[in-house]
Amino acid sequence: MRRVAVIGVGVTKFGKHDRTSAELFAEAARDALIDAELSPSAVQALYYGNVVGSETEKQLHTGPQAASVLGIPTVPTTRFETACASSHAAFRHATMEIAAGVSDIIMVGGAERVLNVPTAESTEYFAYASDASWEQTLGLTFPGVFALVARAHMAKYGTTEEQMAHVAVKNHRHGVLNPKAQFRKEITLDTVMTSPYIADPLKLYDCCPFTDGGAAVILASEEVARRHKRPIWVLGSAAASDYMLLHDKKDLSRVPATERAAAAAYRQAGLEPDDVDVVELHDCFTIAEIVATEGLGLFEPGAGGIAAEKGWTSLGGKIPVNTSGGLKAKGHPIGATGAAQIVEIVTQLRREAGQRQVDGAKVGLTHTLGGNTATVLVSLFGRD
Amino acid sequence: MTETAVTLKKFFETARDGRLTAIKCGRCGNLEIPPKEFCDACGQRDWKPLALSGDGTIASYTIIRVAPTKHAGDAPYAVAVVKLREGVSLFGRIVDIPLDRLAVGMPVRFRPLVIRNETAVGFGPA
Ligand SMILES: [Zn+2]
Fold it and tell me: What distance in angstroms lies between residue B36's CA and the mean position of ligand 1's atoms?
């Protein structure tokens, strides 16, 4: 198998846009091409993530649409849908195609547009990622899924609402330092604790926002990457799944797919959790960050809440998590999120993250979760 | 070829009449909520229907305050994962229990619900 590197990255400003998801992707992909100093004609395939386009934009077949708007209409294009992990799944498959020697240069990315519809409507579309017969019929929402995880984690480990609030405060503090973030405003513990419940015990400020945005990364074989000035190597990339239905899961306080994907990615890279310097993980809700830090082996099961409270996951802490502001403050355009996390880690490993730079970062990790904790992707990155 | 032990349609038809049906693996004894084709514990395909008591305790719950469009009129409402006496868990809507009394470990009992003409799982006081 050949080594694979990221040689270009691009991301739009996250927030509300009056452009289609295809246009948002094309902007990010254009910036990635400029960053890689590549002409569009060098791209041999597009692997693309988009989730609710069929609902919010009444648009299927978003892959070729995105490729057409970018200006690479004839390359093979595939759209991936693994809920919020879509563009990370796209990334893993592109990595394998290059590693196998089928292609040398692949564009990976994603985009989403949701702020053009009312909140109740987008809440409903996001809930389509839970089971139609068992869960949607009962009015389960996405915050509801993670509220059930939170309650189970609280009952098992004594995790508190205040510990969860620390995650939101930290990610907002990081978001201030990211010009592309949707929210660039510090919040206090009190802001979180006094915000209204959305799905108890999760409050408004425990939840990531709805976001429009696009992100793109360009992958290349080692031979191509060696001609570029600062390749960031893909050291491992793994996926894992779990039962779709909440009631089929054995223990709601854990996400076994995270544990399995992480174990496989660490094995591929020949690394351990202690080797990781910077992490972008899926904090769609504050509890999701706590459970992910445990599942990735950064902290013992049950210790994720304490780690958040003590500031161990903050910039300057033991293991900085979500330096971009995370989904919470940077925003969560679902089809773009996996690629956007990779953009941040590549920026960190190139030592180009400015005020939010993790000193001496050599190894970075991205973790993306899809749907009812049923899909997880974990990838590891390193610099020369 | 044997028939699938319990289809989704069959489960909800029986549930509408007040009875819950799980499937039990004839090889390894694994108990699951249908439909499942193969047993994920032993890889075999030897399901037998098993009637459930409908009694259980709340494993986790939440109160949905911001609801999807279709359910907005019901909000706030509670949903829960209930661990049934037989060992399997089932997701359902909480009915006739004051929201501020809900707790992990609280005993509840199954009752059928019809929401917008669709049969759904409900849990009320034990
Ligand atoms: Zn079995």
Answer: 11
Q: Determine whether the interchain pair A133/B91 forms a contact, defined as Cβ–Cβ distance below 8 Å.
A: no
pLDDT reported for residue B1: 41
CB pairs under 8 A between A and B: 105
Per residue in A43-77, is it b (16+ CB within 10 Å) or e — as a string? Answer: bbbbbbbbbbbebbbebeebbbbbbebbebeebeb
By C-alpha distance, which of A223, A231, A255, A253 is closest to A242?
A: A255
With CA atoms as reference, report the closest residue to B109 among A373, A275, B72, B90: B90
Instruction: Give pLDDT tens digits for A22-65.
Output: 999 999 999 999 999 999 999 999 999 999 999 999 999 999 99
Within 155-214 of A, beta carbons closer than 8 Å to B belong to 155, 196-202
**Is A133 an interface residue toward B (CB < 8 Å)?**
yes
Q: Which residue has the tokens 């999760």?
A: A202
Domain, as residue range, for B35: 8-52
Which chain A residues are within 8 Å of B88, Cβ to Cβ? 247
Q: The whole model's pTM is what?
A: 0.97
CATH number of A131-207+237-329+362-374: 3.40.47.10
Distance from B93 to chain A by nearest Cα, in Å? 6
B109 shares its domain with B67: yes
Question: Would residue B1 count as lying in a domain?
Answer: no
Q: Å from A330 to nearest chain B CA?
A: 22
Given a contact cutoff of 8 angstroms between Cβ atoms, the answer to whether A40 and A15 are in contact is: no
Quickly list H helices, chain A: 21-36, 53-56, 62-70, 86-99, 119-127, 142-157, 161-175, 189-193, 222-225, 256-269, 286-295, 304-310, 326-329, 334-349
Its ipTM equals 0.96
* Nearest CB partner across the interface for B62, out of A133, A199, A248: A199
CA separation (Å) from A67 to A41, A58, A107, A374? 12, 18, 10, 29
Residue B47 shares a structural domain with residue B59: no
